[in-house]
Specification:
Helix content is about 30%, strand content about 20%. By secondary structure, the chain is an alpha/beta fold. It is an enzyme of class 2 (transferase).
């Protein structure tokens, strides 16, 4: 029998400190929620936030005053270059199935269990 997922609970041995946020590319509808989430994680939760390198080059975000204020606190990575295996406590995806598949591909060569929300 497969246990009912609603009865399962994730317990942290210590509070998470680092998060990777991946958002759907070319979808402007997630830009403001992405920005707001990043600000909240940095300022309210005092977390270390990783984002894709290309996020720091997006014109719309670079013109956003709120994003300008926090962009220097973000850590960027490049797919295929940087190994995030031991650096990320959990991942937040803002997108659909394709975004989730992309994120899972970043960690295919590891036995490390990545928590994706």
């Amino acid at each position: 029998t497969i246990p009912d997922p609603s009865n399962q609970k994730l317990n942290w041995t210590k509070p998470p400190l680092t998060v990777l946020i991946i958002r759907k590319h070319l979808d402007e509808s997630v830009l403001i929620p992405f920005r707001d989430l990043v600000v909240w994680l940095l300022e309210t939760k005092n977390m270390v936030v990783y984002v894709e390198h290309m996020v720091l080059e997006e014109r719309i975000l670079l013109e956003d005053e709120e994003f300008q204020r926090i962009q220097d606190r973000l850590i960027s990575f490049k797919e295929g270059v940087d190994d995030l295996t031991d650096k990320i406590d959990f991942i937040i995806c803002l997108g659909g199935d394709g975004t989730l598949l992309y994120v899972s591909s970043l960690f295919q060569v590891t036995t490390f269990i990545v928590r994706i929300f």
